[in-house]
TrEMBL record, chain A:
Localisation: Cell membrane
Membrane spanning stretches: 49-70, 106-125, 162-187, 207-234
Family matches, as SUPFAM superfamilies: MetI-like
GO biological process: glycine betaine transport; transmembrane transport
Keyword list, A-Z: Membrane, Transmembrane, Transmembrane helix, Transport
InterPro entries: ABC_transp_perm/SBD, MetI-like, MetI-like_sf
The UniProt record lists the keyword Membrane: yes
GO cellular component: plasma membrane
Membrane topology: Multi-pass membrane protein
ABC transmembrane type-1 domain ranges (all copies): 45-230
Protein name: Osmoprotectant transport system permease protein
Coiled coil segments of this chain: none
UniProt key word Transport: yes
From TrEMBL, chain B:
Quaternary structure annotation from Swiss-Prot or TrEMBL: The complex is probably composed of two ATP-binding proteins, two transmembrane proteins and a solute-binding protein.
Location in or out of the cell: Cell inner membrane
UniProt record similarity statement: Belongs to the ABC transporter superfamily.
Catalytic activity entry: a quaternary ammonium(out) + ATP + H2O = a quaternary ammonium(in) + ADP + phosphate + H(+)
Name of the protein this chain belongs to: Quaternary amine transport ATP-binding protein
Keyword annotations: ATP-binding, Cell inner membrane, Cell membrane, Membrane, Nucleotide-binding, Repeat, Transport
Organism: Marinobacterium stanieri
Database matches in Gene3D superfamilies: CBS-domain, P-loop containing nucleotide triphosphate hydrolases
Cellular component GO terms held in the UniProt record: plasma membrane
First-listed, main subcellular location of the protein, grouped into a coarse class: membrane
UniProt-listed Enzyme Commission number(s): 7.6.2.9
Length: 243, 386
């Protein structure tokens, strides 16, 4: 139980640092500068969140069933190949994935969502697959021995017992996702990347910061949200955080 | 009732076929416990798992209550068979209540009914529902988990139970306790049970019949007493152990070897006592009872021979006594402890019902060795005196 304690500590530290930086910025008049981008920020944050939510949910909606199907015995032979392919997929830089998706679907929100979804798919598929395979054989034997159908076994025994591992995959996936979203601007997907990249281009550090700071905060919030979700959804009996 | 007919399992392995079960034929009568016993790898688990089709059989048939299971739907079949796996296999994501209630839930019972059932079963396996219902498996000791495993298998009241070394993970002391509780439960529930064990003592204690396996074959299928008295070959003999005669002691209850007993009362004279001792052929002493026929002591032969007076003035206190439902192992142990060859036997009110003697025990056990028809004690005693 060291890890959650540590992460909580890290979050606390981050908050304190932010507060300190904030007060510094206030004195230097930086805040006022940043504040001038308020309207842009509010709009772009909305877009940013939209991108994360849509591509993230899609990745979960595709990744969990895909991992589940691959873990079924009758796909055992295919599964290994599929996992290898997906593994190679991760070595492709996310920017390249976005570029490929643009060449496929053109410019705009759609290719951005598609690219982000693909980039965050693998950890979810992989963790669902291994999580389900790691459910001990004797639990499955007990389940089928008392007369569960394969579907009942999946829903009542296998998924709940793999859920913690699946959530770990989702957390990794969303971390990748949130980290990649600013790049979506490059293929016309919008989001806070607009302020960051334009700020860099125009050599306007405050504009860049107005994009970068909310991006960082969003990343942290998403991570916290997933952690809370995992804490609440993973059944108590198999949740190491609730021992 | 479970009937197994020419059941065979051949595993195809890279090193060639392995015959794990070789034309097994056996029948477990309704309400009895059959223990499958044998060394590691002899095919016990394979045979058991073919009954609920965890392992598909290569050939042969299985009948449950007279019905051929071949055509039955697998899920349907399994819901009528309670299954306790060796590794316990409680679902860690569910509370104890949910674990026990899972089969009733699958069968579509309403919530009130399966909750009440879970509570009832917890009480049956001697765990306090107010403490355990809402706990998770990881919050229980191994022995407690094993009880829950049994409770889960019993939940939908299946007529047949399969249990693979259900008490294997428990230390010897607690194992005895759980075995006793289980036997008590079985007396009420009367399930037809197949039970895998590799422990001869457990088998002798639990079984109505024992099936000894060796290399995939069923080599002997007998009642524990017959198995211990008449092992069919050297393998079975060495498997049941050199002390098989002693093991039989626990199978026999005092009531089965109890003899009628002649007594004196405190008001009788020692002369009367001596007369009765000689008359009955008692070697050392005669029992003395009070007016309610409760044993209070004994008058020894030597005192009766050398002294005048009343029994009530010259008797020794009792060392120990037994109950009709005690097993002979306890009796033998009491006899050794107190250096005596006989013990009075009393009912729950302390009223004398008979006596048990070393001679009686020896003859009872000997009778089975000689394959006599079940002998009544009276007959045995007649033979002795004849
Ligand atoms: N899936 C399998 N594939 C190949 N061989 C198997 C398989 N399962 C069991 N066997 C073989 O079948 C034989 C009987 O195995 P089984 O598990 O029934 O033994 P057992 O009597 O239960 O032994 P133990 O007391 O060790 O549990 C063994 O020789 C084992 O190696
Ligand atoms: Mg076994």
């Amino acid at each position: 139980m060291k890890k959650p304690a540590f992460t909580r500590f890290a979050y606390g530290l981050a908050l304190v640092l932010m507060f300190a930086l904030g007060s510094l910025a206030e004195q230097a008049g930086i805040l006022e500068e940043l504040f001038s981008y308020r309207e842009d920020v509010v709009y772009l944050v909305g877009q940013h969140i939209e991108l994360v939510l849509i591509s993230g949910s899609l990745a979960i909606l595709i990744g969990v069933p895909l991992g589940t199907v691959l873990s079924r015995p009758r796909f055992a032979k295919m599964a290994e190949t599929a996992m290898q392919t997906l593994n190679i997929g991760t070595t492709i830089p996310t920017l390249a994935i976005l570029a490929l998706s643009m060449s496929l679907l053109g410019i705009g929100m759609l290719p951005a969502v598609f690219g982000l979804c693909i980039a965050s798919l693998l950890p979810i598929v992989r963790n669902t697959y291994t999580g389900l395979l790691e459910v001990p054989d004797h639990l499955k034997e007990a389940a089928s021995g008392i007369g569960m159908t394969p579907m009942q076994m999946l829903i009542r025994v296998e998924l709940p017992n793999a859920l913690f591992v699946i959530f770990a995959g989702i957390r990794t996936a969303l971390a990748i996702n949130v980290g990649t979203v600013p790049l979506a601007f490059l293929i016309g997907g919008g989001g806070l990347g607009e302020l960051i990249f334009t700020g860099i281009d125009l050599d306007e550090p405050f504009m860049m910061l107005a994009g970068a700071i909310p991006t960082a905060i969003l990343a942290i919030l998403v991570d916290i949200a997933i952690a809370i979700l995992a804490f609440m959804i993973v059944p108590k009996g198999v949740n190491p955080l609730r021992a | 009732m479970i009937r197994i007919d020419n059941l065979t399992k051949i595993f195809e392995t890279p090193n060639g076929p392995v015959t794990a079960a070789d034309h097994i034929n056996m029948e477990v009568p309704e309400g009895e416990i059959c223990v499958l016993l044998g060394p590691s790898g002899c095919g016990k688990t394979t045979t058991l798992k073919m009954i609920n089709r965890i392992i598909p059989s290569t050939s042969g048939k299985i009948f449950i209550n007279g019905e051929d299971t071949t055509g039955m739907n697998t899920v349907e079949l399994r819901r009528n068979i309670g299954y306790v796996i060796q590794q316990i296999g409680l679902f860690p994501n569910m509370t104890i209540e949910e674990n026990i209630a899972i089969v009733p839930k699958l069968l579509g019972w309403d919530a009130n009914r399966y909750k009440a059932r879970a509570k009832e079963l917890l009480e049956l396996v001697a765990l306090d529902p107010s403490i355990f219902l809402k706990r998770y498996p990881r919050e229980l000791s191994g022995g407690q988990q094993q009880r829950i495993g049994v409770a889960r298998a019993l939940a939908a009241d299946p007529p047949v139970m399969l249990m693979d070394e259900p008490f294997g993970a428990i230390d010897p002391i607690n194992r005895e306790v759980i075995q006793d509780e289980f036997l008590k439960m079985q007396q009420e529930l009367r399930k037809t049970i197949m039970f895998v064990s590799h422990d001869i003592d457990e088998a002798v204690k639990m079984a109505d019949r024992i099936a000894i396996f060796r290399g995939g074959r069923l080599v002997q299928y007998d009642t524990p007493d017959d198995l211990l008295a008449h092992p069919v070959d050297d393998f079975v003999e060495s498997f049941v152990g050199d002390d098989r005669a002693l093991k039989r002691l626990r199978l026999v209850q005092v009531s089965q070897v109890m003899e009628p007993v002649t007594t004196v009362s405190p008001g009788d004279s020692l002369k009367v006592a001596l007369e009765r001792i000689e008359q009955q052929g008692y070697s050392h002493a005669i029992l003395m009872v009070n007016e309610r026929n409760q044993p209070i002591g004994y008058v020894s032969r030597s005192v009766a021979q050398t002294t005048n007076g009343l029994c009530g003035e010259h008797y020794f206190g009792l060392k120990a006594d037994t109950r009709p439902e005690d097993d002979l192992r306890k009796v033998a142990s009491l006899m050794f402890n107190h250096d005596t060859t006989w013990l009075p036997c009393t009912d729950e009110h302390g009223v004398l019902v008979g006596q048990v003697t070393q001679r009686g025990i020896t003859h009872y056990l000997g009778a089975t060795y000689h394959r006599d028809a079940p002998v009544s004690l009276a007959q045995t005693l007649q033979q002795i005196s004849a």
